[in-house]
Amino acid sequence: MGYQIKIPSCVYSGMGSIEDVQTILKQESAKKALVFTDKGVAGAGLLDKLLAVLEHCSVDYQVFDELKPEPAYGDVEAVVEQMNRENGDIIIAIGGGSVMDAAKLCSLLKGSDYTVKDLLDNPLLASKQLKTVMIPTTCGTGSEATCNAIVAIPEEQSKKGIVNAEMIPDYVILDAQMIAGLPASIVAATGVDALAHVVECYTSKKATPLSDTYAAAGAKLIFRNIEQAYKNPSDMEAKNNLLLGAFYGGVAITGSGTTAVHALSYPLGGKYHIPHGVSNAILFAHVMAFNKDACAERLAQLCDAVYPEQSAGSGEEKADYMIGRIAAIVKNTDIPTNLEAFGVKMEDLDFLVDAGSRQQRLLVNNMKELSLEDIRSIYLNVLKED
């Protein structure tokens, strides 16, 4: 059986690679850039670094910075409306996953009669209208590498992914300067999100030798650097490794796909507005423990790639070691895992089970089929955790 993977056309990496935006602008003969970001990125001074490059190149720009974190599809449609009042010949996104996802959707909807709601119903309606440049300012979402965009659906109190190969970014800038001042809590949450990407892709039904290559490389970078990056904010080598690992995880998604961890996290984000990385962290070890009997061999192989010093152990021992490391990383990075603190109550269990079971796009990737009772058991275990 054949398989494929989708990769952005050109990737610049390394400290100071933001300057390579100049090369991109010249190559594309860009006259005006449509810049997508948010207030936090602008307030941290990161947007100024990009705007300085644009001004140096005498490229005009329009900034769109009103996007909410983890937006609903209506929020993105409002940004599309603003964008369509402006002319531009290239899209640049500088921010986290929400900003990059919105920019990718805008690249399809520039000048189009379609809406984000239309793409939720049929993701393949639209095609790319403007080339895109992605500059991640967190170390986890992998959005800079994927053809996915995630939006909240308020009426369903959940989230949904829009997948269209046309959304693969054209250019990516992986500059660790962009995450140098990232708060430790965001390093932790986005880093665990990236960790979930690589582990889920490696243990997915859709995994291939191509996706495995990126997932294993990303896993090694993230497992071995996330705690150091969290504890020592000045360790730029660890942060650069996280940034690269997150990118590899995004690439792995295009050839494989996430599984039940992400599927069951969507209702937590959609209804209770728990940050995406935190939602994944809450569920991660629980889902992998449930999956273990179906993917112990794959977890053992991943252990060999990430922790060769564990090679003497049995397959079962190595699988347990990986699940233990996932739980330890969540604990050591102080990610809150008590759902009650986020307003989730035991009486919400039926909603969670129903909403989680609807995420079939991802659940079909899970090596072990989940019944409604299985889903209930996982959520129940999480709710019982202190």
Helix/strand/pairing class, anyone? alpha/beta
Tally of separate helices: 16
Principal-axes geometry comes out as globular
The CATH topology annotation of the largest domain reads as Dehydroquinate synthase-like, alpha domain
- Report the major sheet: 6 strands, parallel
Tell me the Rg in angstroms: 20 Å
Neighbour order of strands in the largest sheet: 1-8-5-4-2-3
Number of strands: 8
The CATH superfamily of the largest domain is: Dehydroquinate synthase-like - alpha domain
Order of helices and strands: EHEHHEHEHHEEEEHHHHHHHHHH
Q: In angstroms, what separates the terminal alpha carbons? A: 46 Å
- CATH architecture assignment of the largest domain: Up-down Bundle
Strand percentage, roughly? 5-15%
- Given this structure, which CATH class of the largest domain is correct? Mainly Alpha
User: What number of domains?
Assistant: 2
Write down the oligomeric state.
single chain
Helix content: 40-55%
Overall pLDDT level: 96
Task: Offer a quick outline of the entry.
With 386 residues, this protein is an alpha/beta fold. The chain is built from 16 helices and eight strands.
Can you put this structure into words, describing what you see?
The protein is α/β, with parallel strands linked by helices and 386 residues long. It folds into two domains: 10-179, Rossmann fold (3-Layer(aba) Sandwich); 184-384, Dehydroquinate synthase-like - alpha domain (Dehydroquinate synthase-like, alpha domain). Helices cover 52% and strands 11% of the residues. It has helices at 21-27, 39-43, 46-56, 73-83, 97-109, 116-121, 184-202, 209-223, 226-231, 236-255, 260-272, 276-306, 315-332, 349-357, 360-363, 372-384, and strands spanning 10-13, 32-36, 60-64, 90-95, 132-136, 148-153, 158-163, 171-174. It has a six-stranded parallel sheet with strand order 1-8-5-4-2-3, sandwiched between helices. Strands 6-7 form a two-stranded antiparallel sheet. Helix 14 (349-357) crosses helix 16. The longest helix has 31 residues, at 276-306.
